Amino acid sequence: MNNEENKILAHRQHVKYFMRFLNVLPSSLSSHDTTRVTIAYFSVSGLDVLGSITSISLDLQSRIIEWLYQLQVEPNKENGDMSACGFQGSSTINIDFESGNNHYRCGHLAMTYTGLCILLTLGDDLSRLNRKALIEGVKALQTEEGNFSATLSGCESDMRFVYCAACISYILNDWSGFNVERATDYIIKSIGYDYGIAQCPELESHGGTTFCALATLSLTDQLNKLTEYQIERLKRWLLFRQIDGYQGRPNKPVDTCYSFWVGASLKILDSLQLSNYANNRNYVYETQDCVVGGFSKWPDTCTDPMHTYLGLAGLSLIGENGLLEIVPTLNISKRAHDHLKALHEKWDSES
């Protein structure tokens, strides 16, 4: 829809939209069952950014928290090995270690990151986390090149999981499982000829992985490892991704999610104000469904939780009325981040 009425945030519809995903998932998402934690993350964080976290009843909040802790992989009972520790994406492959079929009983970095974000957003005190085991699980996944694999059971390793590992380490306030020097070197080697940042060295620059790299450098206090020239050229590359909304790569269509990925990258570099807020806002609102709620990837296509949350997060970055402030590096609200900082102070006082 492209009309003036659609340029107003359909707040009530979006709240109902996210609540539906926290109660009953449509059959179209059955293929995503093993990553159900990410769907919960988009929904809970979306409600938070809308300032409607209280729409989740205390009972449902408690059940979500209990469900997440059931997905925490504990150290091996026989030998104490912590390399598999983390959060799984759902109970689909939540196999007991004692069954003998435990090859897939291991954490996944993206699920650990999003699981921790949900717990913070719901105000949990993280007291039931095995923080040491989670950090050992992160440490086991870093490669010699400096990047991270997602899981011990074998999968791709790239910039996405470098970011997830950095977020986990930041949230747990423990960098002992994250080799900062090696990860920074990997990021710098992944800078392309156009000064965007790729998944891996010598691949194509991409808006999503540029965000992952910049957020990691910010969280690890390593942004100063980029030269002034590299930063200025990277700003240029990011700003050139805007048409009305943002595209992820040159010669690709714009997409709602890049309002966050590219917008947050510019925010980290203190350059978002150089973009055209009005054009970005207009594009994101063109993808809004005012009837059932949600935002889609492109106008007049089906909405989904990821694009709905990232669309809202992108609007938050440019100061849209009715939305809470986002902390771009962690992709959680400032409210949740303030709760995290209070926990860090508590942990420091206890150590």
Sequence of strands across the biggest β-sheet: 1-2
Strand proportion, as a percent range, falls in under 5%
Domains counted in the coordinates: how many? 1
Question: Helix and strand succession?
Answer: HHHEEHHEEHHHHHHHEEH
Number of helices: 13
- CATH architectural arrangement: Alpha/alpha barrel
Distance between the termini: 55 Å
Q: What is the share of helical residues?
A: 40-55%
Structural class: mainly alpha
Enter the CATH topology name: Glycosyltransferase
Radius of gyration based on Cα positions: 20 Å
Q: Which residues form runs of ≥5 with pLDDT under 50? A: none
Q: Whole-number average pLDDT?
A: 95
Catalytic activity: geranylgeranyl diphosphate + L-cysteinyl-[protein] = S-geranylgeranyl-L-cysteinyl-[protein] + diphosphate
Keywords: Magnesium, Metal-binding, Prenyltransferase, Repeat, Transferase, Zinc
Family: Belongs to the protein prenyltransferase subunit beta family.
Protein name: Geranylgeranyl transferase type-1 subunit beta
Describe the structure.
It comes from Vanessa tameamea (Kamehameha butterfly). InterPro entries: GGTase_I_beta, PGGT1B-like, Prenyltrans, Terpenoid_cyclase/PrenylTrfase. Its EC number is 2.5.1.59. This protein is mostly helical. It has one domain: Glycosyltransferase, CATH 1.50.10. 46% of the residues lie in helices and 3% in strands. It has a two-stranded antiparallel sheet. α2 packs parallel to α4 and α6 packs parallel to α8. The chain is globular and about 60 Å long. The N and C termini lie far apart (55 Å). The model has no long low-confidence stretch (mean pLDDT 95).
